[in-house]
Each structure stands twice: as C-alpha cells, then as structure tokens.
Design brief:
Number of helices: 6
Helix content: 40-55%
Bound molecules: 5-O-phosphono-beta-D-ribofuranose
EC number: 5.4.99.18
Number of domains: 1
Strand content: 15-25%
InterPro entries: PurE_ClassI, PurE_dom, PurE_prokaryotes
CATH architecture: 3-Layer(aba) Sandwich
Shape: globular
Order of helices and strands: EHEHEHEHEHH
Number of strands: 5
Protein name: N5-carboxyaminoimidazole ribonucleotide mutase
Family: Belongs to the AIR carboxylase family. Class I subfamily.
Catalytic activity: 5-carboxyamino-1-(5-phospho-D-ribosyl)imidazole + H(+) = 5-amino-1-(5-phospho-D-ribosyl)imidazole-4-carboxylate
C-alpha cells in the first residue's frame, strides 16, 4: 500500500531540513515516502511523480525547496492533491528567496506555505497529519496526544542551564 504522504525535495541538500517532516510523521505513526524531485534538474521526474501521485494513492504532498524554489508550485500545478510547501533556508539569502518563491502563487493554484526551515518542515508534517486525521479517528487521537505531550513539556518557569 502506498504511504499517504509524499515528501519531495529539490536536492539531497534539502534532506537536513525535510527529515524533520519525516521524523514528525514517524512520531505520529503516519507512513511517508521521501524522494528527490527537482523542478530544474529532473523536470521529467517531477512531471511523472506529480501527475501520477493521486493515482498512486498519495493523499498529501509536502514539497521542500530552496532558492528559486519552483518545486511546490509546479507540483501543485500538476496534481489536485493538497501541496504544502517548505521554504528551505538558502546560503545566500537565508531562505527569504525560497519563501517568496513558494508563497506568491497566482490565484488558482494553491500551495500552503509554511515557515522557513525546520519549523516549517515540522509544521508541514503536522498539517498533513491533521488533514488525514479528518477521516482517521485513530490518527486524530494520536495527534491530540502529541499536542498534549508538547504542552505538558513546557515548564512554568525558566531555569539556568
Ligand atoms: C533547489 O536548489 C533545492 O531545493 C536546493 O534547496 C537548492 C540548492 O540545491 P543544491 O545545489 O544544494 O543541490 O533546487
């Protein structure tokens, strides 16, 4: 059976960021498949993946890319599945370039855009899990437990470390 969530990224160098999405999904007991799919270097791979993603059984796509980050938008143009974009922090412009590339989609082709970097990768996974949880009561319970554990872990007072 195909994993419900695909994590795609433009380069091996994006994995340091995108593995946080994979780790978060694993903690929630949600299967995912991670692939390198570059809009620029492997456009045919992108077209084949995105056009076939729905038929393959994926429900949500998380797409991370940096710099001229066309991957989430191009993937969204090629599939009706929800696409969540993660702007990867770039060396030269610190990911602001990635953010602007992903967030400014023209009306008609949406990409749900998260924060730059690790926070965005984690939140993309949580958002994707929340979408799946709408029709999966067991996952909904696990997601609520994950959030409660996070809340319980916050100390009332700061301490010197
Ligand atoms: C983008 O170019 C990738 O998403 C990556 O963030 C960035 C740099 O890629 P590499 O040169 O590190 O492969 O397509």
């Amino acid at each position: 059976m195909t994993a419900p969530i695909a994590i795609i990224m433009g380069s091996q160098s994006d994995w340091d960021t995108m593995r946080h999405a994979a780790d978060t999904l694993e903690a929630l007991g949600v299967a995912c498949e991670s692939r390198i799919v570059s809009a620029h270097r492997t456009p045919d791979r992108l077209f084949a993946f995105a056009k076939g993603a729905k038929a393959a059984g994926f429900k949500v796509i998380i797409a991370g890319a940096g710099g001229a980050a066309h991957l989430p938008g191009m993937a969204a143009a090629l599939t009706e599945l929800p696409v969540f974009g993660v702007p990867v922090e770039s060396k030269t412009l610190k990911g602001v370039d990635s953010l602007y590339s992903i967030v400014q989609m023209p009306a008609g082709i949406p990409v749900g855009t998260l924060a730059i970097g690790k926070a965005g990768a984690i939140n993309a996974a949580l958002l994707a899990a929340a979408v799946l949880a709408l029709s999966d009561p067991a996952l909904s319970t696990r997601l609520a437990a994950w959030r409660k554990a996070q809340t319980d872990a916050v100390a009332e007072r700061p301490e010197d470390k």
